User: Fold this.
Amino acid sequence: MQAREEGTGQCLLLSIGSGAQMTYSRVLLKLSGEALMGNQGYGIDPAIVQSIAADVAKVVASGTQLAIVVGGGNIFRGLKGSAAGMERATADYVGMLATVMNAITLQDGLERAGVPTRVQTAIAMQEVAEPYIRRKAMRHLEKGRVVVFGAGCGNPFFTTDTTAALRAAEINADVVFKATKVDGVYDKDPAKHSDAVKHEHLNYQDVLSGELGVMDSTAIALCKDNNIPIVVFNLFEPGNIGKAVAGEPIGSRIGNPA
Assistant:
């Protein structure tokens, strides 16, 4: 698949390094909060942040427009708070605030790597971030800035996976990258089952009906309705973000049948 140039309907090919071609011109990268904590068990590992920033810097320098949605599970997860007795909406709002902490941390890491970055939040907190404004976010991307979306979609009962799908549709992203701790989608948990089989390609209905746990069903349905492919890959393999942008066959791809 080749990226469509906005407003022309034509394919846009951009070079990355020597001879390679960029498949996607605007991408939405979904990062879990757990990915940021590394092996610490809680919080944020600065080394992980800098590793992500280094990969993102290379991609942005090559011309790709990149936005990020980050989760908050390394600090607080709404579902766990609800399970422990908190009112669900309250727990979700606390989780949204956790995502803003991660977003600001990513901004710091990216800017130290030389990547101009803006944080936009779905809950207004003007002292630390811009409010989410779709047209402003798209303008930042056009100017080569990374936009990190924090506070989910601003509403309880929705996951940051759903936020990723929603923001991808809003900014006309070519693809959603879900960067995880595993190298793709398996028929069962590869950490628990040695005979787990990796899926190279899946359609949206496979994921919706198979309960594969890639993303929640609302996120998958949003991507399906807007024909936005999803690529699931291992975040911790250096250079994988760039490989995914270049359309290299890494991880698992979810989309409509060819």
